[in-house]
Design a protein that fits this description.
By secondary structure, the chain is of the alpha+beta class. The protein has 4 domains: about 15-175, no CATH class; about 180-295, Arf GTPase activating protein (Annexin V, domain 1), CATH 1.10.220.150; about 315-430, Pleckstrin-homology domain (PH domain)/Phosphotyrosine-binding domain (PTB) (PH-domain like, Roll); about 435-555, PH-domain like, CATH 2.30.29.30. The chain is built from 16 helices and 20 strands. The protein has helices at about 15-20, 50-60, 85-95, 120, 125-130, 170-175, 180-195, 225-230, 250-255, 260-265, 285-295, 370, 395-420, 425-430, 525-540, 545-555, and strands spanning about 40, 65, 80, 215, 220, 240, 315-320, 330-335, 340-345, 355-360, 360-365, 375-385, 385-395, 435-445, 455-460, 465, 475-480, 490, 505-510, 515-520. Strands 10-9-8-7-13-12-11 form a 7-stranded antiparallel beta sheet. A 7-stranded antiparallel beta sheet has the order 17-16-15-14-20-19-18. It is found in: Cytoplasm.
Length: about 550
């Protein structure tokens, strides 16, 4: 590939062309444009890597190269700007004249027949750091139009794009060793075949479709988000892009030998049934600790391994938000499988707990955005058939996830005793759950003539709760959402003739056997999202326990 690079000091263009064999008798390239403050030229012979390196080191003011390539000539014309004084320009000219690259003083026989590539012939060893940064391997069919990433070892900051002139690519590609070409093309083809396997169609860690990254040390295919977590544990996993990075034969063979299925069989061999396996919709701390638990701590490679959430008891400090003052203060928490409850104490030496909650009425879900902490956990439970919220966090992501899975572990074993004939999967479905939907809506009163007020709503299966503030300990009210076969439905819009002062105009109505509940949303997307969430609940048949809850709501009203 004949790449023509040269930098000429402004004001010395004519003289330097004569000295380098581009005098009056040689045609001036059409793309050669003089810059007012910088360097510009086109040269039929490239300066050697020594020249390029010295120029870049000596003139740190050299800005990013801005390429301008001619599609009708084999000469690649590059323009670059150098904010330097006349003395600097003169020194640059001297460096070009007295460098150790004699080819710079000898023009080729013809501008239309490019000379051999000096980057390959004169400095073949120095070319490897450059080609290793190509988006495509040298043997790729698209190597004629490579893109050199910014920060290359011999390129100005910002990178340099090089495009070979039409018709020169086949000849220049012959300069690469034939075994390198064949090996590169074979590696790319083999990589595509491994990538297309059904087992590798989902991210190995979160299940997101179409992963385009992989770990060259673990042999798993992962998504962009999970690759960022892998990058934080470089001693365990080294990730590369399947689209932008070059994979050598050994790495491709390693991927083919392993893949998601084989690697999961090793690192996920003995996951407890109650352990929460996050998806791509879950928060960062859950996904990160899941990845670290698998590959870094290897928690699931051996059966019966003692872990912080498998002992049936857990005690420690969590920062809890005060119900009235809103301050987060350290509190001692105690979880006991034997007693079947979760307790917390206002003081570490207290003998009596502030609150003791039965484990079967507890729910826990991560709420980093709402709490304002990446490790924020919301614990809810029923008190007098009303929902009570506790907001906690821990500075360690591992610790708060251990608490979360410890709660699930105690719940699982408690329910196994309470429902001995139920299967493990049935019991697993009754463990902690995420809220179906949360967000702001406006609501009016039962007479439907009151002003609409903005409230924070949480849909926890069949309980629709609304709060004045998202971090309130108790809900201002709750609505039971039953099934369609019992007379419950959701409708888009508000009833005709609805009065009231509402600022949002995307309404929806929940119809129950007793009354209608009117809400407005800020956007149509919010409206459709809430309607979809309510519809998913209403279309489900009610359980005997839910009939009992419905009866309580009717009695209370």
């Amino acid at each position: 590939m004949a790449v023509r690079l040269a930098w000429w000091p402004a004001g010395f263009t004519g003289a330097s062309q004569v000295l380098l064999g581009q005098g009056q008798n040689r045609p001036k390239p059409a793309e050669c444009v003089k810059s007012r403050h910088g360097l510009t030229a086109a040269c039929p012979e490239p300066p050697c890597l020594y020249q390029l390196t010295v120029c870049l080191l000596f003139f740190p003011g050299l800005s990013s190269a801005q390429q301008k390539c001619s599609k009708t000539s084999s000469v690649v014309n590059c323009r670059t700007s150098l904010h330097a004084h006349g003395v600097g320009c003169l020194l640059l000219l001297l460096l070009l004249l007295f460098s150790h690259c004699p080819g710079a003083l000898r023009p080729p026989a013809s501008l239309h027949q490019p000379a051999p590539c000096r980057l390959r012939c004169s400095q073949p060893s120095a070319l490897r750091p450059l080609t290793s940064r190509l988006l495509l391997p040298p043997s790729s069919p698209s190597f004629c139009k490579p893109f050199w990433r910014s920060g290359g070892p011999f390129l100005p900051r910002g990178g340099l794009q090089v495009q070979e002139a039409p018709g020169t690519c086949p000849a220049r590609r012959q300069g690469w060793h034939s075994d390198t070409m064949a090996g590169g093309e074979k590696s790319v083809k083999a990589l595509r075949e491994v990538w297309r396997r059904a087992e590798n169609s989902l991210c190995a860690d979160c299940g997101k479709p179409d992963p385009d990254w992989a770990s060259s040390t673990l042999g798993v295919f992962i998504c962009l988000s999970c690759s960022g977590i892998h990058r934080n544990i470089p001693s365990i996993s080294k990730v590369k892009s399947l689209k932008m990075d070059h994979w050598d034969d050994a790495q491709v063979q390693f991927l083919a030998k392993h893949g998601n299925a084989v690697t999961k069989a090793t690192y996920e061999a003995h996951i407890p049934i109650y352990y929460y396996q996050p998806t791509y919709n879950d928060c960062q701390v859950l996904r990160e600790q899941w990845i670290r638990a698998k590959y870094e701590r290897k928690e699931f490679t051996e059966p019966g391994k003692q872990l912080p959430y498998t002992d049936g008891v857990k005690e420690g400090i969590l920062w809890k938000r005060g119900r009235d003052n809103g301050q987060f203060l350290p509190r001692k928490f105690l979880l006991s499988e034997r007693e079947g409850c979760l307790k917390y104490f206002t003081k570490q030496d207290s003998k009596e707990p502030k609150i003791s909650v039965k484990i079967d009425v507890i729910n826990a879900t991560f709420q980093p955005a709402k709490i304002g902490n990446p490790n924020g956990l919301q614990i809810t439970y029923l008190k007098d058939n009303k929902t009570r919220n506790i907001f906690v966090y821990h500075k360690s992501g591992k610790e708060v996830v251990d608490w979360f899975n410890a709660i699930r572990s105690v719940q699982f074993h408690y329910l196994k005793v309470a429902f001995p004939i139920a299967s493990d999967n049935e019991i697993k479905s009754r463990l902690t759950r995420n809220f179906l939907k949360e967000g702001y809506m406006e609501k009016t009163g039962p007479k439907q003539r009151e002003a609409f007020k903005k409230r924070w709503f949480t849909l926890d299966h069949r309980r629709l709760m609304y709060f004045k503030d998202p971090l309130d300990a108790f809900a201002k009210g709750e609505v039971f959402v039953g099934s369609s076969e019992n007379g419950y439905s959701v409708q888009k819009g508000l009833p005709a003739g609805t009065q009231g002062n509402f600022s949002w105009h995307y309404g929806l109505t929940i119809v129950t056997p007793d009354r209608e509940y009117l809400f407005t949303c800020e956007t149509e997307a919010d409206q459709l999202g809430w309607i979809a969430a309510f519809t998913s609940v209403i279309n489900q048949a009610m359980t005997p326990q839910e009939y009992a809850i419905e009866a309580y709501f009717k009695f209370k009203s």
